[in-house]
Every structure is written in C-alpha cells, then in structure tokens.
Automatic annotation (TrEMBL):
It comes from the Bacteria. The lineage of its organism: Bacteria, Bacillati, Armatimonadota, Armatimonadia, Capsulimonadales. Pfam families: AHSA1 (PF08327). This is Activator of Hsp90 ATPase homologue 1/2-like C-terminal domain-containing protein. Residues 13-147 form the Activator of Hsp90 ATPase homologue 1/2-like C-terminal domain. Gene3D superfamilies: 3.30.530.20. InterPro entries: ASHA1/2-like_C (IPR013538), START-like_dom_sf (IPR023393). Belongs to the AHA1 family.
Length: 151
C-alpha cells in the first residue's frame, strides 16, 4: 500500500448536482465535515475557519481552494494532521485533496484522492497518513448520510 496517496470512493444515491452542492457550498460542507468555515469557497483563495468535531475545536481550518470545476472536480491543499497549535505547519508542503464526481445510473460516484504525503516531514508523515486514511472513510460516510437525509 502506498504511503503517499489515499484513494477512496463511495456511491451516493443522489444527483450529481446535490453532491456538488454539499461539497462546494461552504455551509453545507461545514455540516458534514464538522468545520465552521468563515466564508464561501473561491478558487485560488484561502479558506479559513475552525473544526467543530468534539475534542478538536482548537484546530484551525486553513486550506487553499485549487479548483472548482462544476459537478466534476473540487480540490484544495491543506496540512493533514495539523492539530498541534504550537507547531507552524505553514513551512511544510501541503497535500492535495481532490473530490471527483461522476454520474452513475443510481446517483453519483464520489472519489477522493489525497496525495503528497511524501513531502510531509518524516517525523509526522506516517501519523498524518494514518489519521487521514481513517478520517476520509468517516468523511465519505458523513457526506453520503448528509446528502441522503437532506435532499
């Protein structure tokens, strides 16, 4: 198994437009991702906020929105596992998170790819990978539940 890249997918029984909105509307994203985002997502701009997941409320949300290709690709860069407020993660190269959408007969195939773990300092690389590997499994379930319960 590669320690540089996480790939996951889930089939969501909802139209592609609905899944796209849950990914790219900053308030809806915040609901299922458990983050209070300060404002709308805009390509090429920084998105800030803070996590709302119990026990992680001290963690700042800082990502750079890369691409928003309607109903096909939403991507951003971030610093995975950046949970210690005493560490300046901004000096590290961020990973790239990509959400890719494809229409299926029964809804939407949502694929998640996070790449670039090889650029994280070796002292925290495996832990960041481990946290995101499990985290993305939960987050894909969260978006599926969110979309199917709030059409």
């Amino acid at each position: 198994m590669s320690q540089d890249r996480i790939e996951k997918q889930i089939e969501v029984k909802a139209p592609i437009a609905r899944v796209w909105r849950a990914l790219t509307d900053y308030q809806e994203f915040g609901e299922w991702f458990r983050v209070k985002v300060d404002g709308p997502f805009v390509s090429g701009q920084i998105s800030t906020g803070h996590m709302t997941y119990p026990g992680f409320e001290h963690v700042r949300w800082n990502v750079v929105i890369k691409e928003m290709e309607p109903e096909r690709l939403f991507s951003y860069t971030w610093h995975p596992g950046a949970i210690d407020p005493a560490i300046d993660y901004s000096v590290e190269t961020p990973t790239l998170v990509e959400f890719l959408l494809e229409e299926t007969e029964t809804g939407t195939l949502l694929r998640l790819i996070e790449s670039g773990f090889e650029n994280i300092p070796s002292g925290r690389r495996l832990e960041a990978f481990r946290m995101d590997e499990g985290g993305w499994t939960s987050q894909l379930e969260n978006i599926e539940n969110y979309v199917t319960k709030s059409p």
